[in-house]
Amino acid sequence: PVKRIAAPDILARKGKEPIVCLTAYDAPTAEILDAHCDLLLVGDSVGMVVHGLPNTVGVTLEMMILHGQAVMRGARRAMVVVDMPFGSYEGGKEQAYANCARVMKETGAQGVKLESGPTVPETIAYLVQRGIPVMGHVGLRPQAVLTEGSFKAKGRTDDERLRVMAEAEATADAGAFAVVVEGVAESLAREITETIDKPTIGIGASAACDGQILVVPDMLGLFDWTPKFVRRYADLRGDIDRAVATYAQDVRARRFPAEVETYFSKKPVSS
Ligand code: KIV
Ligand code: NA
Fold first, then answer.
1. Which helix (H) or strand (E) holds 64?
2. How do the domains of the chain map onto residue ranges?
3. What mean pLDDT comes out for the span 53-69?
4. CATH 3.20.20.60 assigned to 7-234
5. Strand, coil or helix: 78
């Protein structure tokens, strides 16, 4: 059996080779990504990129568990981390522990991720002390979209830089094994990476981080529009569109299915 990467392995990579991460939501994709990635995140971005929700606020614990189980069936070697959705950990430490423990038990994942707003580091410490590996998430926090009004990059003002830096330090000190840094200025990402003793995993946070993560359907070109920080490594939208257009033409012209795609297509010999 393949030895699976765990939280201490990711932590030990701080300042060494870059940590390769991607999101994953289903078994067959996880199987493909597993050969290349150190860590697969079952992100609550699943709500937006798979279920068509406007933001991540509507994502439920049940959705995260179902997708976490699927990813665990596909990934053998990469560490699998499941995002805790909005409303599942902010209510208090005991609530957070109960929900995180449920995710760990029902999915078999190696860790969870929490967006580390001001009240969350205390919860992270409580969880880590009780055996749950936690990844933090600072900077642009998508679950705060309704109080912030939109998804905005951080680090324009000194006040904002100090706030994000303090959240990153508190998250690292609470015992997180790694910290996602999303949507921040390069100088701030560098400062965080140089200050905290845990690996930083950047998304829209420059090359200064200890690792990188992208949302898989974004980097595979499934959508018309992608944010500035995404590089498209494939044109899945174009590939799917061309494939389906050809299929539709073939069905309408009765070119599909052909004889090779048909069961028992030879005429039976008459008796
Ligand atoms: O939900 C998600 O996909 C994430 C990553 C982008 C870090 O939180
Ligand atoms: Na997320």
1. helix 61-74
2. 7-234
3. 98
4. yes
5. coil
